[in-house]
Amino acid sequence: MDESPGVEGDRVDPAVEAAALRRAQRTARARSVRKAAARSAAGLGRGAMAGVRMAGRSGHASARLVGRGGRSGARRFRVFTHSGGAGESGLARLVELNAVHSAGDTALTLSLAGTIFSIPTGEARGQVALFLLLTMAPFTVLSPLIGPVLDRFRHGRRWAIGTTFAIRAFLCWVLADAVVTKSVWLFPAALGCLVASRAYNVTRASAVPRLLPDGVSLVSANSRQSLAGVAGMVLGGAVAAVAGTFGPGWSLRVAFVIYVVGTILAIMLSARVDSSLGEADIDTAEVPGSTARRGPLRGFRRRVDALPWRVLFAQWCTVGTRLLAGFLTLFLAFLMRDNPIRGLSGTLVLVLVVGAAGFGNAVGSVVGTLLRGRAPETIAAAVLLVATLTALATAVFYSAWTLVALGLVAGLSGQLAKLSLDALIQEAVGENVRTSVFARSETILQAAWVLGGGLGIALPLNPQLGFGVIAGLLAGTFAMAVRSRTAHHQRTAPSAPVGRA
């Protein structure tokens, strides 16, 4: 009979038994480890799944929250634009279109922010000066024709507004490649966008009076458009900043999309934009309260004399604020590059000044609605004097703080002066010629901006000289405003009859 190894009769070898016990213990420990690992893996899996489910629920909740916030903001914006009967009159669509315009222009500006700083100063100033002259040409040469053309071909105003968007969309697509390749078309396309933007402002200005609902003044309508423009500026800047992380070409393509949307919205404007019911041209109608002789008004001088003195006074004040805005934009851009403030980045100073100007513009829109009971010509004169003193202080105490203060005052004074001028045109100019006067006034203001920009390029990059010169010009425009009032009183002063004391 065979016996198993380690077994001697009925007795078991202790060594074999101990070895078997150790194997059993190792097996049990292995099983325990595998079970613990399995339980741990299962726990981790359940935890991961729970985490995924929680993250999914949290992400979904966050998405719902953002979506609700976006929808809530859109609803509030829509309530704002449609209030006071603006939805029924068609003004709301024009206000929303102005937000799209501001978003596109902001995206374009941010995309080209580094363009000037990447080109030698002398070359950049020469190119900008050349094309700014071309920019000035449409306003200085064609400005006497823009108003009559708009008034005689009224049934294409929606297409004219849409064309300004379409041109900018095309030029942004060109710029998307030009900024990468440093093409010679960079400055022509950029300044072409500037011309189209100014032309949009002129055309839109002539459309606003046609869309005013009952009970909404021209000042309130323009304040509403300004606030919508600030909202569009913030949104367009945020989207362009995100796209710009991939390169300036991408943010320009964002601007292209925004302008395409604007083109479509412009065509969808209310038909009242093209209406000419009850309107006349200032050349063929007498302006109530004017000192011009009766009969057809011919030439620029006669058109000026046909306006009430209060309108001329506010227009001169507003021209001064536009000169300051154009000068500050271009002069400061080159000054911060060629002669920055010691210890500070030129780009940082530019951002601070632009931010202050935007804030001042928004504050001016709000303050303008609160000062509707005040004399508009007094407000226009006051803000021009403040701008003059601030420019003079910047020339004497040149620093980052005075530059930021000047940017704030430039935005605030420009907006308040424009709102005051709008109020006077609505109050003192007859309804049948108000649209023509408003369009001509906007054309003059756009030309003033371009002239100020040209001055900023032509002057040497010396802060004391530059800001001193602009302060002198602002004082000159105020003197012209006072002269217009004095000339009116001299023309209307009663003369004593012959033979009487």
Structure description:
- By secondary structure, this protein is mainly alpha-helical.
- Helices cover 77% and strands 1% of the residues.
- Strands 1-2 form a two-stranded antiparallel ribbon.
- Helix 6 (157-181) runs antiparallel to helix 9 (248-267) and helix 8 runs antiparallel to helix 9 (248-267).
- The protein is globular.
Q: How would the blueprint of this fold be written?
A:
Elements: E1 7-8, E2 11-12, H1 14-82, H2 86-89, H3 91-111, H4 121-140, H5 143-152, H6 157-181, H7 186-207, H8 218-244, H9 248-267, H10 299-305, H11 309-338, H12 346-370, H13 376-396, H14 400-428, H15 431-458, H16 463-492
Summed up, what is this model?
The chain is mainly α and 501 residues long. 77% of the residues lie in helices and 1% in strands.
CATH homologous superfamily heading of the largest domain: MFS general substrate transporter like domains
* Helix/strand class: mainly alpha
Task: Tell me the overall shape.
Answer: globular
The level 1 CATH classification of the largest domain is Mainly Alpha
CATH topology (level 3) name of the largest domain: Growth Hormone, Chain: A
- Tell me the domain tally: 2
If classified by CATH, what would the architecture of the largest domain be? Up-down Bundle
The H/E string reads: EEHHHHHHHHHHHHHHHH
Rg on CA atoms, Å: 34 Å
Strand proportion: under 5%
Helix content: over 70%
Task: Detail the poorly predicted runs.
Answer: 1-5, 58-67, 284-298, 495-501
Q: What's the total helix number?
A: 16
Mean pLDDT: 74
Number of strands: 2
